[in-house]
Write a structure and sequence with these properties.
It is built from one helix and eight strands; from the N terminus they run αββββββββ. The protein is mainly beta. It has an eight-stranded antiparallel β-barrel with strand order 1-2-3-4-5-6-7-8. The chain is globular, with a radius of gyration of 23 Å.
């Protein structure tokens, strides 16, 4: 009779180690971010560095309302509802509003005040620079000073009619944008 001695489960197998090394080697490296190609109005001032890069994927709500000057009706921006993903596609937070709030899955969150916008091409919401208010909670949003919205796709007001018969109607428009979070250097 032969005795069978099973290997001890304390050490990972060679196959598992090789697979882990292969995944690590193929994972994209953190892309170095440059704002050189952006309009000056939405560039973050000197003395700040990128703390986090995310891709917001979601939708923006618009509501049919009377124009402020009472000359007709228009689709008015209501707010976003988006997942914030890291460059590998893993969700790291959310962006929702009103008020516009960027939240990390670690529980920290930040609101901000718009500094500037710049055109981002037909059919795309504009680039945007906002100055962050002090963060709520501790975590990834702690110390964020500016947030840039760049690489925008979609998200503009609906092209469908907005008039007396549609006042109060809400439509959601899909969009995507990169959100770059900056902290003081």
């Amino acid at each position: 009779m032969h005795a069978f001695i099973a290997p001890r489960p304390t050490a990972p197998s060679l196959a598992v180690l090789c697979a882990a090394l292969l995944v690590a080697a193929c994972a994209p490296m953190g892309a170095r971010y440059s704002q050189e190609q952006l309009p000056n109005a939405v560039q973050v001032p000197a003395g700040h560095q990128v703390a986090m890069q995310t891709v917001g994927v979601g939708k923006i709500a618009y509501e049919c309302k009377a124009k402020k000057d009472m000359t007709g009706h228009e689709w008015a921006f209501v707010g976003p509802d988006a997942a914030l993903n890291d460059r590998n596609g893993m969700q790291v937070g959310t962006y929702a509003g009103p008020p516009a709030t960027w939240s990390s899955l670690d529980g920290s969150a930040v609101t901000a005040t718009q500094v500037a916008v710049a055109p981002a091409g037909a059919g795309n919401i504009p680039y945007q620079l906002v100055k962050a208010n002090p963060a709520m909670g501790s975590g990834a949003m702690q110390g964020v000073s500016y947030i840039q919205r760049v690489a925008t796709r979609g998200g503009v007001a609906p092209g469908s009619p907005c008039g007396m018969d549609t006042v109060g109607a809400r439509l959601w428009v899909p969009y995507q944008a990169d959100y770059i979070f900056w902290k003081a250097a």
